[in-house]
Structure formats: C-alpha cells, structure tokens
Amino acid sequence: MADRISDPTGAPDPAGPTRAPESAEAPPPGPAPEPEPTSSGPLKSSVGMHGITESARYSLAEMGPGRTLRTLSTLNHTDGFDCPSCAWGDPSPEHRKTAEFCENGVKAVAWEATRKRVDAAFFAEHSLAELRTRDGHWLEAQGRLAQPMHLAPGATHYTPITWEEALTRTADRLRGLTDPDRAVFYTSGRTSNEAAFLYQLLARRLGTNNLPDCSNMCHESSGAALAETIGLGKGVISYEDITEHADLIIIVGQNPGTCHPRMLTALEDAKRRGARIIAANPLPEAGFGRYHNPQTVRGLAGPGTLLADRYLPVRVNGDLALFAGLNRALLDREDARPGTVLDHDFIDRYCDGFDAAAAAWRKLDRSRIEAMSGLSRRLIEACADDVLAAGSVIVCWAMGLTQHRNAVPTIREIVDFLLLRGNIGRPGAGPAPIRGHSNVQGDRTMGIWEKMPDAFLDRLRDEFGFEPPREPGVDTVDAIRAMRDGAVDVFVGLGGNFAQATPDTDVTEAALARCGLTVHIATKLNRSHVCPGTESLLLPCLGRTERDIQAGGEQFVTVEDTMAMVHASHGRLRPGSPHLRSEIAIIADLGHALFGDGLGWQAMRDDYAVIRRHIEHVVPGFHAYEQRVRQPGGFMLPRAPRDSRTFPTATGRARFTVNPPTAAEAPPGHLLLTTVRSHDQFNTTVYGLDDRYRGIKGGRRVVFLNRDDLRDLHLHDGDLVDLVSVNADGERRAPGFRAVRYPVPRGCAAGYFPETNVLVALDSTAETSNTPASKSIVIRVEPATAPATGAPA
C-alpha cells in the first residue's frame, strides 16, 4: 500500500472508483444527489503500479482493446499524435520510450477516442432543461458529438442541422452585425497552430481583435511579467536543461504529479544526475514525494526516487514574500563576502535597475516576510544555501502563482532572483512557466491575442492584402463583461468549455444567455453547450487522435509545447462520425461563406501546407516551416534571452524591478481559499470522482481545512458546510461541501475547480494581466444551510 501523509482523515471507500454510464438515461427531476466523498489522507508517493492499472481500466472502458493499442502506441511519438492534455515537452526522439505517456494523458486520449456517441437521438431524448440539471462530469461522459445540432430560439431541444445551413446561419449573423466588435471569438489551448492562425485571420478579416483565450486565465500573468523584464513572454528552458544541466530546480505554485505527470520522469533524471529540487506549495502534493517510475524496476519493485529535497509549506499567496526573502538573503551574503555571491559581470553587462531593487531589499522587514510567506527565516536561509551551492538554477511555476492579485509582481521577483546570479542565458538556468493545455503557447504565437503588436498586424496585412483592426479587443474577463452588458451578439468558441473555465459562474452563464447566437466547435458535450444564447449551434470537429483527410490528401497539424518546440501531430483513428469536420475545415468554410475566396480559404482547407506557408511569412521563427517540422522532433523557436543573452525590453536590457511584498489576507473568522485540480481531472474535464493522491473517493464537493481552523470554526472532519466568498460587490455562496481535515497552512483552505469558480468575483483579477484571482479567495466556512444537491458545475 502506498505511503500516506500522517494524520489520515477517514477510511477508503470499499466500493471503488465510479464509472461513467455507458448509455444516456433520463435524469431524475431536479439536481442529482451529490455523492458523499470519503477521505483517507494524502499520499506521499506517485504513479507506480496503481497508475498503470488505473490507466488500463479507464482506456479499456472507453476505447476497448483495439483502439487503446492503436492510440497509445503512437501517442507522443514522432510519427504519431501529440497528447491533447498538457503542454509538457518531449525527450529527444532517440530518448523516447515505447510508452511515452502518463496516466492523465491516457485518460485525455480515451476521453476523446471514446466509443460513446451523442447524436440526434440523444438530444431528442434529453431536453435542454434536463441537461442543465446534470453536472459537467456527466455531460462529458456521454460521448462524442456526432453531428451538427441547432437550438432554435425558444426551442426546448437541440435538433439536427446540415453543415451548409449551420455555416450559412453563422455567416449571416456575423455579416449582419452593426459592429464587428459585437462578435467574440474564444479559443481553447488544444487548437493546432494551423487552426489558430486561420481563426485569428477570420476574426481580423471580419474587423475585430476580440480573441480571448484560455491564456487570459492561466499564464497571462507570466507573459506580462516576462515581457517586461526579459523581453519575451514565455519560458527560456529546454527539456535537456532540466534533465542534463540544472543543479537546482525550484517548483513553486505547480503540482507536476497531477497537472504535468510526465515532468516527474524528467525530474527523476535530474535527481539521479545529482540535481536538487525545492518544492514550495500550500499542499504537500504526492508528486513531491517518491516517484515510482512505472517503466523501471526501481520504480515498480523498489523504493522509487524521492523528488523534493526540501518542501516549503508556503502560505497561500506567500510566494512574493518567499522570493523577496530569498533575494534579501542573497544580498546579505554578498554584503558580507563581496564578489562571491552575485554575478556582477552579468548584472553590469546585461541588466538595469539593480541599485533600486537592492535598496528595496535592504529595507525589508524580515518578520513581515515570515508572516506573509508562512515560512521561518531559518527555512528561507536554508533555501539560500541551496542556491549558493548550485551553479545553474531553474524556477518552474504554474497557476499557483499566476492567479493572484499580485501575480505579475511575484513573477517579476522570480526574474530578479534569477538575474542576481546570472541564471538566464546559460545551460540549466532560467524561468520556466509550465503551460497547461497542449498548444496554448502555440495559439498565442499564432496571433490568438487581443493585443497583438503592430509588427504582426503589418505582416498579416502584407500577406493577405487587407488592413487588420488596430484597436485592442477584449480578453476573457472583459468578454464576459461585454456579454453581460449586452454588447455582444455572437459568441464563437473554438474548443474549450467557456462556462466552466471562467470565473463567477452564475454571471458567466447569464452573460452567455444574453448573446443572440452562441456557436461551439467541439468534440464532446459540455456545460457551455447547455448555457446557450437565444440561438445556439454545436459544430462537431475531429479530435487530435483522428485521421484528417482533405482534398489534398491526408493532413497533419503542428503544436508548440512549453519548451517552444514545434512538432507535427498525425491522427491515427478513423473519425468517430462521418459528419465530423476538422477545425481547419470549419473555419475555412465559415471564412468562405463570409468573404468568398479572396484570401484562399479553399486552398487552405484542402492542404494545410498552404497555411504553413502563410505562417512562414507572418510569424517570426517559422522559416522553412514545412521542411523543419517534418524532421523527427520538429524544431525549437528562437528565444533571444536564452540564445544570445539579448533582452528586447524597453531598455534593451534585462530589468530588475522593485516589488514591495504583499499577500492576500483574510479577516478574523475567514480563510484564504485556493482552487486546485483533482488527480482525476484535466482543466475542466473531470474523468472521475476520485482524487487518489489526496485520498478522496466518491465526490468533488470537498474543502480541505487545517485541523486547527476546523477546531476554531467549531467544525469536525466530514461536516457538511457552505463556502461563502466575500467580495467588494457582495457575497457568493457554494453550498454543500464536505470539510476534510488536511495538512494545509493555518488560515488557508483548498477546493476543486470548477466547483469553486462560482466564488470568484468577475472583478477579482490580477493587476496588469487581468487574470482571475482564483487562487486567493477570501471565504467564510459555515454549517450547510441545506443538504448537498450536486449543483451543476
């Protein structure tokens, strides 16, 4: 049995994990009862044999043995398809294993390649009102969308529609807008480079920069901070920087065991080479403990590899204070031994702003640093010892850093930390924002951004012969505000699950309902599809796993991973329905219906190499695109700070910044809630109701609480409670959560999203980036006012 962190809070459920129903059944009247989750305490180890058996169970149930073999044998291989889950990079082709995937990657593939279908008969049986009573897990478990569907104004059911009629309806509505900015084009990070480029082309040809995407809700803060300080809004490391060169890897605000499981193998390689790892996180995640690599004898039959050498139980939103404290510690040691700690040659040659930053660090109140970070000075000084012993340092982070009010200053402070010892522009060193969805970074590279610079728009104009709009469009939060205020007539979603991914769930669903037309290009039914505008269309598309054959022959697409590697992805399965079209075909057909063929929509639909030739001319770094992407493993995009220690900032230098430490605070009787994923989940997609690594079985409406906070609130482990967020515009309530005693810092709490998104106020966002502040929500925990109802989420 796997080790667990001490102080377990319950017994495992002997019934075992829950499987999604194989067929659609009419739901009961009203919301389904919420299962009562049980807890057995968090694990201290990850993967191992249980990861293998769980992967096999899920994939065989959804795909069957034949499809399982066909998909997993080519997943993440150079002649196969890229995992539709996270954006973690791949080893070089010669170092890839036969099974180059993780448990959650298997589930993402099986979720897409399931044998279940949602067709006209399903929608005839289930009214919109009935579907709204179901949660997102049930909706997505029903299977793949099999044909275009239409919800007419005032209708109670979706009904079939032809592709031609669906595209004509959409084109007519877009063409009839009084202002192009009354349309919003949202994008998911799963979209390929080619589809993303075509999508932004369509929006800009229409005349709008309203191109919100999931980056606005995850790493927008990273991009803002990095662009300001090093001149590039993405990370600068490679896969080999971790496995072969880094001496110290700091993982902060990231849970690799659940969110990027293949990263564990890279970390194990680094550890066995001699690197040290520091993990800073409010929750002691299993991925920081012993990694039982399922592809090694040591992993399956031996002790595994202990990944984190040092664990810092940082307070929720204490990360800015942590790095400010580290920077002060390094500066103090430099003052004590001048010339032995900081890289003055690097600072003098490549940086500006050091003197102002150093003056601010010298004024820091150490007691305030301890209070805000939740860490003792002794722990912070011990981390500084690790830093001094390391030649090259990488700092990895994810949404645990980016979704706070002070997210941008926090990431700027991490850049300061790296600059102090020259840890940018050399092997094994640099900032590493670990992206979530598989091509979310590529979408931005392709122009999916509401504020693309004039240089990009100029090249787009020169390539296609029209003048793109220059006025910035709306990001995700501002798109919700615009829909809420009646300023949007048409919402088009290219993948994703807008209603569940976004904050302030009730406001977002009401905002979607105010649109005249909502159009969703999607693979599976989800919660957004049952929150329609006056009229709605569901347009089913091919998945990453499926063969894409167009008039020009069999096609492939490309993606960019978190290490800026661009590589090809070839689907291998027969499409799940004859009515499916590729995302590219849908966009091109809509462009043709809107504008005729002046831009060559038909040629781009027929042969994706035509799109790649356009990308070569518009997007820097894509010269000889077709030739280079056909090489095994693809190619790496240029990144000036990494490649030549060139920093294209406002001053032409890497910039130290002054970031006064701040931290979110909860008043007496309140707690600071952070949102997290379960292990059986990817983004808004919930594969099952268990969270094996945290010891949760049979439900998701749980809130993790420190035992002393439970006592002070006169609550007990297992009590049913309501969560009430306190915001400037009032309170929001999420009812019917089970309190679970858990080793979180005092004064902090954690709960799963999207169930807790209802608590995030639309106006609670990060400074500069406007990213929802979903990781620091002030809440009250109250005894439940009514039994749990399983409110849809």
Précis, in short:
This protein is of the alpha/beta class and 793 residues long.
Topology of helices and strands:
Layout: E1 38-39, E2 45-47, H1 48-72, H2 103-112, E3 117-118, H3 120-125, H4 128-131, H5 136-141, E4 144-145, E5 149-151, E6 159-160, H6 163-175, E7 183-187, H7 193-206, H8 220-229, H9 239-245, E8 248-252, H10 256-259, H11 263-273, E9 276-280, E10 290-292, H12 297-300, E11 305-306, E12 310-312, H13 319-336, H14 344-350, E13 351-352, H15 354-362, H16 366-373, H17 377-388, E14 393-397, H18 399-402, H19 407-420, E15 430-433, H20 440-445, H21 454-464, H22 476-484, E16 490-494, H23 498-501, H24 505-513, E17 517-522, E18 535-540, E19 548-550, E20 553-555, E21 557-560, E22 565-569, H25 583-595, H26 601-606, H27 608-618, H28 625-629, E23 635-636, H29 640-644, E24 654-655, E25 671-676, E26 681-682, E27 685-686, E28 696-697, E29 702-705, H30 707-712, E30 720-727, E31 730-741, E32 748-752, E33 777-783
Parallel strand pairs: 2-10, 3-4, 7-16, 8-9, 8-14, 9-12, 13-24, 14-15, 16-17, 17-18, 25-32, 29-31
Antiparallel strand pairs: 1-28, 5-6, 5-18, 10-11, 19-20, 21-22, 22-23, 25-33, 26-27, 29-32, 30-31, 30-33
